[in-house]
Design goal:
Length: 119
């Protein structure tokens, strides 16, 4: 069992989720249960899956939850693009959020590769 609080990738993912919630505060009210909800759930799923994987036994299970986090990160990346193209998210907000997602995805990939190499 690992302490997720000590993982830089979890910290980055947590800050991404916070930034996503802040960026979507001004989303159209009719999208609160639509795209805005999807964006928020995907962003929260990334650090949550990292944390859950850390609470499991063994590196194989941790790697599995990191893969799930990676899927959520890819989903978030697309939903941010969709929100931008629908003019729900300004370009000045979209670009930094997308850059954060890409950074988290790179970190997840490196972490997964490290876990697989250690087996």
């Amino acid at each position: 069992m690992k302490d997720f609080h000590k993982l830089l990738v979890w910290e980055k993912a947590h800050h991404l989720a916070l930034d996503v919630y802040r960026a979507t505060q001004s989303s159209p009210k009719d999208e609160l249960y639509g795209l805005t909800s999807q964006i928020r759930r995907a962003s929260g799923s990334i650090p949550a899956n990292i944390a859950e994987g850390c609470g499991r036994s063994g590196d194989a299970e941790l790697a599995r939850f990191l893969q799930i986090a990676m899927g959520s990160a890819s989903e978030l990346e697309y939903h941010l693009l969709l929100a931008r193209d629908l003019n729900y998210l300004d370009h000045s907000m979209h670009e930094p959020l997308t850059n954060q997602v890409i950074e988290v995805k790179r970190m997840l990939t490196a972490f997964i590769q490290t876990l697989k190499a250690d087996r």
